[in-house]
Amino acid sequence: MGLFDIIKKSTKEKKVLDNSAMLSNALHVFQLKDVDIDEELLKIAGHSQEVAEQLYWFFPSILFNTMFPEVKNVNAEVYKVVYSNGEEKDFLYADNKLYKQISIYLKSIYTTLDRDSILNILAHSSEFNAVNNALNDGSKIEDLVVCTVFMSNV
Predict the structure, then answer these.
(1) What is the DSSP letter of 33?
(2) Domain ranges of the chain
(3) Distance CA 59, CA 84 (A)
């Protein structure tokens, strides 16, 4: 292993640590009430609008899918972004590094979250809201199906 390899490895390890802090801070923001979540996530994301949006999109969606695996997802591999000009584009979750990191992070800690924290996060999930409404209307959870998640980029 040469010096370049050592530097490269050190940089990758630092980025993983930075992302761990970012994910922990994002989780904390989701747990708070009476905050401007968009503004706080933008700060945590180093003022990257794209990263802040993905934190907002992925945290609730991943937590929902982790907690309610019995709800079928007809297109679980893809999410759709709708841009301000009306254009829609499909993305694979598997191609998104931040999605994978959030998924690993949430799956490792979600059992330690209290009920209020979980509900505060899930309140931002369109899947949770739709399933909750269906259950309140008398549906059985095993009969429910969610479709491709649309995320707005406006």
Answers:
(1) S
(2) 3-153
(3) 22
